[in-house]
Design goal:
This protein is mainly α. The chain has helices at 11-48, 67-86, 88-96, 100-114, 119-169, 171-174, 191-204, 216-235, 238-257, 263-295, 305-318, 332-338, 351-359, 361-380, 386-405, 420-427, 432-435, 443-448. It has 18 helices and no strands. Keywords: Ligase, Membrane, Transmembrane, Transmembrane helix.
């Protein structure tokens, strides 16, 4: 019998130390998952602004942010801070991987704040945008594109049922009055928000993989898609109908583009598709858009937005470099100072004009260029993984709908608005080279972590 020291080592220590470390890793991973999930869903909910009792006539609540929404936003500060303490290396690597164009835009934002007409208002808006950016971005960087989109889909399903039930239970709040009388807004602040959100989430809920058998979750998914169609009709949003039509066409068109071999050839196909789409829109679809708008009693400018733009465009050239201040033209009192119409214009009704007014022409061009470059890069990629390829299509659709919707609606980009978390997730491009620097949380997570 051996009398070496090793033969007298307590067997329990040899067995329990590795097990204790494994249990610690599991508990830590569970904590991180719960924490990031809370941050993620709080960010989504806060961005929508949905709440009980929002006025049926939006003029009654202009500029009023319900206290629960403020508390939700502020709750993100300690939650995000805790996550940064748990995984500082991942956060640092995420910041280092940011595009240089994003860094330049950030510098332009700080410059616009320095010259802002209202520094306090600009700083508040910057904090809100930063917090609503951090949550989705951290979740996307931790669990990959496929997992993030599945979590986003769960939120979309819940939101569809919430808005239908809320409208049925509280029509005095959910159905608008005033100039929008009879149009459903659900738990949102305005019916246009509900329309945009419904159109985007319908595309988001399209099945990620072919279904050979239906599960209860799949039935919920299809039911939510049907409810979103109902909500679009009840909201009487012509913009939402046009965006939904374009989104479905692009989603299935992307499946055709991804089949072509070689990224150069796919790039050529994408450019050709853009040219064809522009021609079709300018020649044929204008008549369809006009018919849709007229069916809701509007013109093609969608509620006379050109009257607002004519008064705002000269203001851009008064401060072309720094703008008037980050997010300043999202303030109703600012709009009242510069826009004179027969009706109260509470919005610029155009994100590009709004960005130019807020932070100047150079920053707007740089930001738009960044978004377009990301869009083209995602359109010309063709992942081998089927789930990831379908997720890429949805990213392309979301970015494209944001770019198109930004022509008629304000706050579609760089604003604490309903679809900003969707935009952040879709624009993020973190491939396997980023995620491979860290230990994979689970074997299943490793399969979804690329992209």
């Amino acid at each position: 019998m051996s009398t070496s020291f090793d033969s007298y080592q307590p067997i329990g220590l040899q067995r329990h130390r590795p097990r204790a470390r494994a249990q610690y890793r599991i508990r830590r991973e569970t904590l991180v998952r719960i924490l990031l999930s809370v941050i993620f869903y709080v960010s989504l909910w806060r961005a929508t602004g949905m709440w009980y009792g929002l006025p049926a006539d939006f003029q009654e609540g202009v500029g009023k942010d319900p206290m629960p929404m403020r508390l939700l936003l502020m709750s993100l500060v300690p939650l995000i801070g805790l996550y940064c303490l748990l995984e500082p290396r991942r956060v640092v690597e995420l910041l280092r991987s940011a595009s240089p164009l994003v860094g330049i835009v950030c510098l332009c934002v700080f410059l616009s704040i320095a010259f802002s007409v209202s520094v306090t208002a600009s700083l508040r808006a910057l904090v809100a945008v930063a917090l609503l950016t951090a949550g989705p971005l951290l979740y996307r960087a931790r669990y990959g594109a496929v997992d993030t989109f599945e979590s986003l889909a769960k939120f979309a399903i819940a939101t569809a049922f919430i808005n239908i039930l809320y409208t049925a239970a509280f029509p005095r709040f959910a159905v608008m009055r005033g100039s929008y009388a009879g149009m459903v807004k659900g738990a949102f602040y305005h019916k246009n928000m509900l329309g945009q959100f419904s159109a985007t989430n319908f595309i988001l809920l399209l099945p990620a993989l072919p279904m050979w058998r239906l599960r209860y979750y799949d039935l919920l998914r299809w039911a939510a898609m049907l409810l979103y169609l109902v909500l679009i009709v009840l909201a009487k949003s012509s913009t939402a109908i046009i965006l939904l039509s374009i989104g479905i066409a692009v989603y299935y068109g992307m499946s055709w583009i991804q089949r072509f071999p070689g990224r150069i050839f796919r790039s050529f196909v994408v450019l050709l598709a853009f040219a064809l789409l522009g021609f079709v829109v300018s020649v044929a679809l204008m008549g369809v858009a006009q018919a849709i708008a007229e069916s809701f009693g509007k013109d093609l400018t969608l509620s006379g937005r050109t009257n607002v733009w004519e008064q705002l465009l000269p203001l851009i050239y008064e401060r072309p470099l720094s703008g008037w201040g980050f997010a300043l033209f999202r303030q109703p009192d600012i709009m009242e100072q510069y826009v004179r119409l027969t009706w109260d214009a509470q919005s610029t009704h155009n994100t590009y004009i709004e960005l130019a007014l807020n932070m100047g022409i150079p920053a707007t061009i740089i930001w738009t260029s960044f978004v377009v470059v990301r869009l083209v890069a995602k359109m010309t990629s063709s992942p081998l993984n089927q789930a990831l390829a379908i997720t890429k299509r949805k990213e392309v659709v979301i970015i494209l709908l944001i770019l198109i919707g930004a022509f008629t609606e304000a706050g579609m980009m760089l604003a604490p608005f309903i679809l900003w978390p969707h935009t952040v997730i879709a624009l993020t491009s973190l491939g396997p080279e980023f995620l491979s620097r860290f230990r994979k949380p689970t074997q299943a997570g490793a399969q979804h972590a690329s992209g």
